[in-house]
Amino acid sequence: MFVLGAAGCGPFVSAEPLNAPVRPMHPKSVREVELITQKPDRRFVEVAMLHISSDKLDLSKGTLFEKLRAFGAKRGCDAVLVVGRSDSHELLDSSQPSVGYMASCIQYVDERVDERDVAAAP
After folding, report:
1. Mind giving me the DSSP string for 4-23?
2. Domains in the chain: boundaries
3. What percent of the chain has pLDDT over 90?
4. 3-state SS assignment for residue 35
5. From CA 12, how far away is CA 19, in angstroms rounded?
6. With bands split at pLDDT 50, 70 and 90, how would you rate the model's confidence at 16?
7. What is the DSSP secondary structure assignment for residue 37, as one 8-state letter?
8. Are strands 79-85 and 34-36 parallel, antiparallel or unpaired?
9. In 18-115, where do the E strands start and end?
10. Cα torsion for 67, 72, 49, 116, to the nearest 10°?
11. In the chain, which ranges are continuous DSSP H helix?
């Protein structure tokens, strides 16, 4: 599991691997990563399940979604599919209320060839 953040220090983000990517994943800019709430029409693979949680109840949903998108960009996701709300996390102190969301890091199967993959091929 890959974790970013710490309890009490802002949003806590974690990723649990699900499926192997169809091609190597490289970090990308946040602008390149779609933030979606419905499954896309394109074929895709769910590479990892993402979870974001914060004990700062004043953070907006949009702020948390953008942090998920930035986390996905670092992992090389083509899109972050928000799948639902999750208001608890086992790593946070259960005496503090928290707000959270679950999302999938997805990679499109029919995505164009990445120049970095071509350069790395034997």
Report:
1. ES-TTSS-EEEEEE-S--SS
2. 2-120
3. 54
4. strand
5. 22
6. very high
7. S
8. parallel
9. 34-36, 44-54, 79-85, 99-108
10. -170
11. 61-75, 115-120
- Assess whether pLDDT exceeds 50 at residue 4: no
42-97 pLDDT tens trace:
999 999 999 998 876 656 777 889 999 999 999 999 999 999 887 654 444 555 65
Cross-sheet strand order for the sheet of 99-108: 2-4, 12-17, 44-54, 99-108, 79-85, 34-36
Cα–Cα–Cα angle for 99, 17, 23, nearest 5°? 125
Q: Is the pTM of this model over 0.70?
A: yes
The rounded distance, in Å, linking the Cα atoms of 119 and 122 is: 8
